[in-house]
Amino acid sequence: MQCGYTPAIIRLENREEYYRMLNLSTLQDPIPLAEMIASESLITTRLAIAAAKGEALDEPEDLDKELQLLEQKMNAPKLRPMYLKGQRPW
């Protein structure tokens, strides 16, 4: 965020590729890692500009993420409320 730049947020779906690029990157060949970080920075900057304009920030995969979270909630074990001794639920 120095010099006013937005951070390069590596999205979760690209995390494995980022780690792979990080491991392969060398001082002699930093280009693949630099290109990936530049790409992620561009996406982050576009989102920041859209947010500043008050535009919707939905991404196409957001619906998939929401459906996955809903499925997890539906499949989670149900918890029953606990009552202190002598209390009644009504």
From TrEMBL:
Q: Which InterPro entries match?
A: Fido-like_dom_sf (IPR036597)
**Gene3D superfamilies this protein is in?**
Fido-like domain (1.10.3290.10)
State the source organism's domain of life: Bacteria
Q: What is this protein called?
A: Uncharacterized protein
Q: What taxonomic lineage is listed for the species of origin?
A: Bacteria, Pseudomonadati, Bacteroidota, Flavobacteriia, Flavobacteriales
